[in-house]
Amino acid sequence: MQQRFVWNLKEVGRDQLDQVGGKAANLGEMLRADLPVPGGFVVSTDAYRRFLVENDCCDRLARLLDAWEGGGIQEQVAEQIRELFATGTIPPVVERAIRQAYDDLGRPLTVVRSSATAEDLPGASFAGQYSSFLNVQGPVALLQAIRDCWASLWNDRALAYRRKQGLENRGLAHGVVVQRLVDAEKSGILFTANPVNGRRDQLVLNAAWGIGESIVAGEVTPDQWVLRKPEGTVVEAVTAQKEVMTVRAGEGVRTAPVPREMQSAISLGREEVHALARLGLQAEAFFGSPQDIEWAFADATFYLVQSRPITSLYPLPAARPGKQDLRVHLNINLYSQAMKEPFTPLGADLIREMAKDVIRRLGRKDPEDEETLWWFQIVGGRVFVDITEMLRNPRRWDRLTRNPNDKDPVTSLALVQWLRRNRAEITARRGPFLPARVNLRLLRFLVGAAWKMRCGRRAAERVPERAVQQGEAMLQELRAQSRGRETLDERLAFIRQTIGQVFIGGFEIVFHAAASSTYMARAAKLLAASGIDPGELAAVERAVPHSVTTEMGMQLLNMARQLDAEGRHATADSAEMRDFLAKYGHRNTIELDVGIPSWNEEPRYVVDLVNSYLANGTYREGLQRFAQAQQEAEAAISQLADRLARAGYKRRAKKLARLLRDFRAMFGVRELSKFYLRHALSLYREQILAVGAELAACGRLNDPKDVFFLTLADLASTTDLKITAHRNREAFRRDELRNAPRLIASTGESLYTAAAETESRGMQGIPVSPGAHEGTVKILEHPEEGNRLEEGDVLVTAGTNPAWTPLFLKLGALIMETGGPISHGSVVAREYGLPAVAGVAGATQRLREGQRVRVNGQTGRVDLLHNPDPTLSPSD
Q: What does the DSSP assignment read for 790-813?
């Protein structure tokens, strides 16, 4: 194909993305849509590539990128790449084309902007990553600006951003847009959805005096309007004190003071606000998604100088038939599992299949009818449930914040705050959420649950044995059904036929110990009524027996002790590690996702963890602390009962001792549910990997593990699945980078935390495990990073599951963004006697690695003791 070095903006669109880059393609599309865009041209990616070839830059650039990807110092590599462009010469054929296009434009004042092929893509906007130049005039200055834009493809910001987004550096090219400069009297940014709260039914408009650079650079606080779509009603308007503005100066721009009489004057009139809103809606309708638009005003005309997708918005739940009113959806990943990660596509599909099979076994509706699961959606890789119908009655709202068994009280508080703001719309309708009649199958299930709970109350000492028997029986039956499945259809049928019973069976295990969930509250009530401080009960919750998760941690510590005594290090093939993996190797770091490898497949996490115990000797303290906690728990029961008896409450003393001993006999059994559920998912994973191997063998997949980036419907098809798997893997990677909200409304409003109800400069969370500790902050995203922890550190993370708990043995304290008193991390923290606070909004962003903090697990308070950055405070 013949190379073309310059295109008129009117000639380009999305079809020329590879030739002109994302920004130019968008501007060309806007011109086609008759939007007011300043004219200009684009220097194509062919021109960029010709520059590299004729200046012999290709091999040198490749070597520098190898150095960057191999861990080279970011700034040094970027600087050496800039030198390639600074010392290179624009090929004469390219220079002639640029000069001719500039002459045809009339040699005006111009703005020169980068337009990369990896720009304004789904999930990656690259806003502010590349260079732009304002007030460029004359061919010499223009050519220099173009060369500087080419170099900015490789600046340190862009390299780091591409790494974060998981985008390749190879094969990239850069276009450069040259447009007439709008010598703006005023300018700003228009978002056609609210980027702060996610609402798609709102526009946000910013405006200030002069050229828009001062707003983009954050040098001025602009006037702001929030408008309701589509009618343009003003929801909020703020007139700012605008002290500086950007103006033309020589061959560039400068910051100048705003005349005093204009500083507090509003920059847009009512009609101008509505005119911009109409342009924004026109652009959004044309592109089919919310847009981030830069605009400028000159000579009584509005110009749109740039438009890109708003990539920061969390995806919307799909509207369901008959459910087009205001809805609210709960993030089950965060609320129930403290899981910030998305499911793999097949992992999510199995959760959906589980819901269908449970309905098939216990419900009355046809699970294949799309309306049956109207309340269930996968959004951004997370499971969201529409809970609107449960909330129509406002008398239920306050109960949400008083529930002692709430898994994530921050979510409940945020929900209640949202409900109060939207009371009229939520209470306008009433409708049943649950079926009006209980069918016979569901009744049998409920009766069985009640019987297990009754047996637990009557004979707590038998609960561990009964729970293990049920889990082993379920697993044995599942293994029997999995045998002999050899074809793809047989393997998929096995999963579909059993997955509902697996989840029901795993949940039933909890019923054996369910009664114990109220025992501590009852004990506290007994003590308080007798004038004894219930706070002394904290010791009883530590080192609870029969907890498979605690036992897992103890086996790791004992392994470290044995290896240390023999002067050895942990390896994946040592006898001790094989013994551990034989019992716990089916587990992984994201336990409900069948797409995540188990520790049997990838034991590196466990090996590194044991070796870290050896390196710092923390296993000694861990073993000693656990043994001491067991003794203290038993002693606390005897002491509290004796105090009641001596005070004349002998019957209460006997009742208290029974409650507390039964609690310790039963409560740890709750951990067995996920233990056996994970066993079942590991069996499913084996079958799915066999399916992947079959598909790869016949050429329908490139790699057997690509199977986890498909759905059950994909696997049942007869098509080539390579492209589908690749596309889904890319979508999964984008979902991994998203910060998922706790709740999302049908308007797009995304709730990440609850609003603070009192002013406080400290960080306040939910007290979940008593005790206090001062230590150094370590922020971890995944448990595999646990080798960075040192004894006494304060772990700060989004949330925890059983894979994190072996790390607790090193810690001094724990801070979690999600969870509540009964969430998994909180329960295990109490068992280990580890001070812990949950529900600390934004802790992973507000705290910094290396800071010293005081964690009070009794009050939920986190105080900063030492701050390496004096500009940062916990309230920032």
A: -TT-EEEES---GGGHHHHTT-SE
CA dihedral sign of residues 310, 315, 317, 321 = positive
Determine the Cα–Cα distance for residues 39 and 12; give it in Å rounded to an integer: 12
Residue 54 to residue 63: CA distance in whole angstroms: 17
Contact 212, 113 (CB under 8 A): no
H-helix or E-strand containing 112?
strand 110-116
547-560 pLDDT, tens per residue? 999 999 999 999 99
Range of weakest confidence among 53-62, 347-356, 480-489, 577-586: 53-62
The C-alpha atoms of residue 481 and residue 489 are separated, in whole angstroms, by 14
What SS3 state is found at 43?
Answer: strand
pLDDT of residue 866: 61
Is the pLDDT score of 72 beyond 90? no
Angle at 402 between CA 397 and CA 403, to 5 degrees: 100
Q: Report how far apart the first and last C-alpha atoms of the chain are (Å, whole number).
A: 55
Q: Reduce the DSSP state of residue 617 to 3 states and report it.
A: coil
Q: Cβ of 528: how many Cβ atoms within 10 Å?
A: 11
Strands 772-779 and 794-797: parallel
State how far the Cα of 128 lies from the Cα of 217, in Å rounded to an integer.
9
Q: Encoding tokens for residue 459?
A: 């004979």
Those residues whose C-beta lies under 8 Å from the C-beta of residue 591, and which sit 6 or more positions away, are 337, 674, 677, 678, 681, 801, 802, 803
In whole angstroms, give the CA distance from residue 215 to residue 206.
8
Strand partners, 191: 204, 292
User: CA nearest 171: which of 196, 149, 153?
Assistant: 153
Instruction: Using the structure block, give the residue that is written with the tokens 């004038």.
Output: 531
SS3 content of the chain, % helix, strand, coil (to 5): 50, 15, 35
Mean pLDDT of 247-258: 84
In whole angstroms, what is the distance from residue 573 CA to residue 578 CA? 6
Q: Which tokens in the block code for residue 40?
A: 């200009």
Q: What is the C-alpha separation between 246 and 433, in angstroms, rounded?
A: 56
Pairing of strands 750-751, 6-8: unpaired
Backbone angles phi, psi at 758, to 5 degrees: -140, 150
Distance from C-alpha of 212 to C-alpha of 202, rounded to nearest angstrom: 22
In three state form, how does the secondary structure of 731-761 look? HHHHHHHCCCCCEEECCCCEECCCCCCCCCC
Token code pair at residue 513: 């110990």
Q: Which residues contact 769 (CB under 8 A, 6 or more apart)?
A: 814, 826, 829, 830, 833, 834, 835, 836, 857
Which residue type is seen at 280? G
pLDDT tens digits for range 403-415: 877 788 889 999 9
Note the pTM of the prediction, 2 decimals. 0.83
Question: Torsions phi, psi of 535, nearest 5?
Answer: -60, -20
Q: Using DSSP, how many helices (H) and how many strands (E) does the chain show?
A: 31, 26
Q: Model confidence over 126-165: pLDDT tens digits?
A: 445 688 888 899 999 999 999 999 988 887 777 776 776 6
Residue 185 — pLDDT band, cuts 50, 70, 90?
A: very high
Q: Residue for token digits 């990896």?
A: 118
Sequence-ordered list of residues with C-beta below 8 angstroms from that of 131, at least 6 positions apart, any chain: 114, 148, 149, 151, 152, 155
Compute the CA torsion angle 726, 728, 729, 730 (nearest 10 deg): 90
The answer to whether residues 35 and 302 touch, using CB atoms and an 8 Å cutoff, is no
pLDDT at 867: 55
pLDDT tens for each residue of 407-449? 888 899 999 999 999 999 999 987 555 544 567 888 888 899 8
pLDDT digits (tens, 9 = 90+) for 623-663: 888 899 999 999 999 999 999 999 899 999 999 999 999 99
